[in-house]
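re: ur question from yesterday

yeah so i grabbed the chain u mentioned. its 154 aa long if i counted rite. heres the sequnce exactly as i have it in my notes:
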Amino acid sequence: MARKVTAKNGGVKAAAKTTEAKVNGVKAAEEAVEVKATEEKATEVKAAGTEEVAAEKEEAAAKKTTTAKKTVQKETKAVTAKKAEKEELKPEVYLQFQGNEAVVEGLIEKAKELYVAEGHRISSIKSLQMYLKPEEYAAYYVINGKFSGRLDLF
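ran it thru and got these structure tokens back, copy pasting raw so excuse formatting
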């Protein structure tokens, strides 16, 4: 509130200063309100932006999950197809000679057993060649190009 001053010039000056102070106070209050409103808007925008970012993250996660599921499905189909090929491609080969019969798969297994009996590991077998000579009643094998042996066919 304005103070009463007895001198005219001093009173006018004091009143002007008081009015100026009031105006400055009002301006300061208005600026404070504007700053507060701006801060509230910034907070709202930030919150809205956060919600949008969260929604975008959720969408991205959903896309990643969908993509991952599709990839897993493709890989599963590929593995299933490979297993089916392996299962389908196991022929049984029979050797018949003068009333005798031998199963080639059995001969291969016997060759592997003899290789392991010699002190080798079965996992070390990289290649195996089998030569069948029915006229000699024998099967010859070579493992990894180094180890060889003979089996009776019948």
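noticed a couple things. Helices lie at 8-88, 104-117. also The mean pLDDT is 77.
anyway ttyl
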